């Protein structure tokens, strides 16, 4: 397996190219190392390679890793979040990427206000409409984001989506451009609870296309830190 530093060099070049194609600045792209398939040693390698964002998608797997490395890096919870697990996430993870329902928002609010902190959240949108995908329906996203203003300890920093897996990443470009359009539409409202400056989209298979369409956070597992389960 290649070192994280080697993978990182390749990815930085790919980001550079995607930015050149779309007149964007590489500095505006944040890379999250998705470490759900790898152990803490590999996570340390990522941190030492200079990657500061860590992404995990299961609370029970993330907690032991957090116990070891929680004081390092910026932690992103990227998976489906059950309400009964919110108490373990608040105060540990700096960002939640999967806010997609009121029951979850309510629980985040409760736990965040008890700790006196504000939690930065992405609203996850099911742009493609696939049944298997989490996220609020595209048509309901505007009302949902607006209604989140009642939760004073939640800050909606952006929108997140997962594109369907396609062998040809070009074919998911419309998913990313639709999320970008929605972001621009919602930002016109200047809601103080929802600055919506960020777009979390793009994974190993499709991040170049996501960057060309406006991603500010890409979530890279396999291509960056590898996958011990494969
Ligand atoms: C696993 C996962 C990723 C990373 O997937 P790769 O294809 O390995 O890069 C990104 N986002 C979410 C939500 C994930 O669950």
Automatic annotation (TrEMBL):
N6-(pyridoxal phosphate)lysine carried by residues: 36
Pfam families on file: Ala_racemase_N (PF01168)
Signal peptide annotation: none
Domain Alanine racemase N-terminal: 11-226
InterPro entries: Ala_racemase_N (IPR001608), PLP-binding_barrel (IPR029066), PyrdxlP_homeostasis (IPR011078)
Keywords on record: Pyridoxal phosphate
Task performed by this protein: Pyridoxal 5'-phosphate (PLP)-binding protein, which is involved in PLP homeostasis.
Similarity comment: family membership: Belongs to the pyridoxal phosphate-binding protein YggS/PROSC family.
Stated name of the protein: Pyridoxal phosphate homeostasis protein
Provenance organism: Caldalkalibacillus horti
